[in-house]
Amino acid sequence: xxxxxxxxxxxxxxxxxxxxxxxxxxxxxxxxxxxxxxxxxxxxxxxxxxxxxxxxxxxxxxxxxxxxxxxxxxxxxxxxxxxxxxxxxxxxxxxxxxxxxxxxxxxxxxxxxxxxxxxxxxxxxxxxxxxxxxxxxxxxxxxxxxxxxxxxxxxxxxxxxxxxxxxxxxxxxxxxxxxxxxxxxxxxxxxxxxxxxxxxxxxxxxxxxxxxxxxxxxxxxxxxxxxxxxxxxxxxxxxxxxxxxxxxxxxxxxxxxxxxxxxxxx
Length: 266
Description:
The chain is of the alpha/beta class. It has 10 helices and 5 strands.
């Protein structure tokens, strides 16, 4: 999987991380303004090993931008009706329109990963998907969508550490699913599925970008920085904004109402 030290093996001070993140989030706001102004369409796909940090990275991307522009899509298991549709049909409905950035927290590539490994689809269905995906993505790009695909890779030891943390920390147990436990024992089945997916779908129109995320802080910064470098946005200068003077109270008086105030234990 290439250079496994690409996300940095040394710990990063939180103060340094937050300073760099603030700069990148400011640039994301500029990207947002450009998307709105130009009607651009951006689609970002996040895939990767369980616990590799997809959710945390996405959270930092959308933390300081508008949910009206940046939309996160994390689809549940398909309904009985959706199972009868063309496989990619339910994903197409969420593709971006003009002025939108859509982020898929897992995507149509479920078919090449978890569905293949866990036996939720047939080998023929996986083969059909791997043949079809590049054609669909070429159509997306030809329609004007900027498509970015990220694979987050984490080491075996770090995945073990993070899963054990989820087991032992009541704040994180919601992140732990039966599928996570089952998948843990199938590391190399997932490796084979990942390799086959890359071989079939790492194409010029929509290549895969790999991020090693054993170091979460560095991984997040590297991904956001790369994302910004792949979208040809142009930042506009900030307008000179001045607050107007507040009006005089005139005849306004505070009403004598009995309202319920929340407790203030802090």
